[in-house]
């Protein structure tokens, strides 16, 4: 899928770029749209409490834990290099857990799709 993405710039090795020479920026604008969309679905004044992109990482980690994903798989999915992978473990543990991470992401994805009612995943609440 990644190889099929159009490249911006002749020699760009950047996956997320708008110029071909610098990495992606403009995150605050990317946050505005989902905040506005979510605000439309809220009762009361329609304002969403302030949030940061890091909140999505926290939500992913907590949600995976609830779904039974092992902590070491959550940490590698979030690209953490401390925690269970700190100290001596960081020296010796070289497995990338790609299959386990893929399964965790698919499990979490099915759960979220089930929450939205737009797919065939379980209709559970978090």
TrEMBL record:
UniProt keyword list: DNA integration, DNA recombination
One BP annotation, GO: DNA recombination
Gene Ontology molecular function: any one: DNA binding
Family matches, as InterPro entries: DNA_brk_join_enz, Integrase-like_cat_sf, Phage_Integrase
Family: Belongs to the 'phage' integrase family.
Protein name according to UniProt: Tyr recombinase domain-containing protein
Organism in which the protein naturally occurs: Microvirga vignae
